[in-house]
Design brief:
Elements: E1 11-13, H1 22-31, E2 37-43, H2 44-56, E3 65-70, H3 74-87, E4 91-96, H4 101-105, H5 116-127, E5 134-139, H6 148-159, E6 165-169, H7 180-183, H8 191-200, E7 205-209, H9 215-221, E8 227-230, H10 232-236, H11 244-248, H12 258-274, H13 280-283, H14 296-306, H15 314-325
Parallel strand pairs: 1-8, 2-3, 3-4, 4-5, 5-6, 6-7, 7-8
């Protein structure tokens, strides 16, 4: 089922606004060496108006890591793709799935599903500028354009422009009347559409996304598609990734403990603090590490109550750990 690729997308972590920043990605990489990580969506405007370093910098340890771009102007996307490749990213992904009003006003995200020819032009323009893969993340439909036939036509149109990998959130997007949060919960998941898409397009790499909360479920999906993208579960319960390398990539490296992960994160935190970062900008991403564990609430509470202090240092993490392990 798995297609050959320089990037193994069997398991990946979804791009999530305000969550999958470079601190979160570094932390997740400590848990799994193999999963493909994605940035938050970065708009073409943010990159081209002098803020590329702010939005695109990342640690070499994050590889493999993909950048998700938001935009609809082929020339601007092509320029940004080249910049991202120069920064060292392993993949360029185009956001055709975000339903928020704010991004729609900039002709970004799910609204682009109504213009598959334009999406194809964007993909082709980026591919002409870079050697790394260009992929598209999208919904199964939008508003009343939600039939399987619509999805199939969209994918085939974009594929004809050269795209070989499609990451499909198995819900349609409702472009007016629902908030982004509601758009992640109210439209029903229709996994069968994504499965059928793979059956009809065996030459394409199809990754499924949406509502995946366990590795058992991921394994079931992999019977039908090429890869699985995990979203919010990986943020709220990051230790779900602890067995990914052994289970899906045949790694013989021993599974780490939560203590192992925190210990490996401490030098990174110390360096970031020395560079002027605030502890809370990093610690907010690790609140879920002890999810569903005895005393896990004490870990979250201690970090939440102490990381925002102006002088908060590495001792806050160490003291929070003592709340859990004594």
């Amino acid at each position: 089922m798995k297609l050959s690729s320089s990037i193994d997308r069997k398991i990946s972590i979804a791009p999530m606004m305000e969550w999958t920043d470079r601190h979160d990605r570094f932390f997740l990489r400590l848990i799994s060496r193999q999963v493909l990580l994605y940035t938050e969506m970065v708009t073409t405007g943010a990159i081209l108006h002098g803020q590329a370093e702010k939005y695109l910098q990342f640690s070499p340890q994050e590889h493999p890591v993909a950048v998700q771009l938001g935009g609809s102007d082929p020339a601007a996307l092509a320029q940004c793709a080249r910049i991202c490749e120069d920064f060292g990213y392993d993949e360029i992904n185009l956001n055709v799935g975000c339903p928020s009003d704010r991004v729609q006003s900039g002709k970004i995200g799910a609204c682009l599903m109504a213009e598959p020819d334009l999406v194809g032009e964007c993909v082709a323009a980026m591919q002409q500028q870079v050697k790394i893969p260009v992929t598209v993340k999208h919904r199964i439909g939008i508003d009343d354009m939600d039939s399987y036939a619509f999805l199939h036509t969209f994918v085939n149109t974009v594929a004809s422009a050269g795209c070989k990998t499609f990451i499909v959130h198995a819900r349609k997007a409702v472009l007016s009347g629902l908030s982004p949060k509601q758009n992640r919960e109210i439209p029903p998941l229709i996994y069968s559409h994504v499965y059928q898409l793979k059956k009809d397009n065996p030459h394409l790499e199809i990754i499924i996304n949406g509502g995946i909360t366990s590795l058992d479920t991921a394994e079931e999906h992999l019977q039908h598609v090429d890869g699985v993208m995990i979203g919010r579960e990986a943020y709220h319960n990051p230790f779900i990734l602890a067995q990914v390398d052994q289970r899906f990539y045949q790694s013989d490296v021993p599974i780490q403990t939560r203590l192992d992960i925190v210990t490996k994160l401490l030098p990174y935190i110390e360096q970031e603090l020395a560079n002027g970062q605030r502890l809370q900008h990093i610690s907010r991403h690790i609140l879920g590490l002890f999810h569903a564990q005895p005393r896990g609430k004490l870990w979250r509470r201690y970090l939440s109550e102490n990381s925002h202090q102006a002088n908060a240092g590495i001792n806050v993490i160490e003291d929070a750990l003592k709340q859990v392990i004594g």
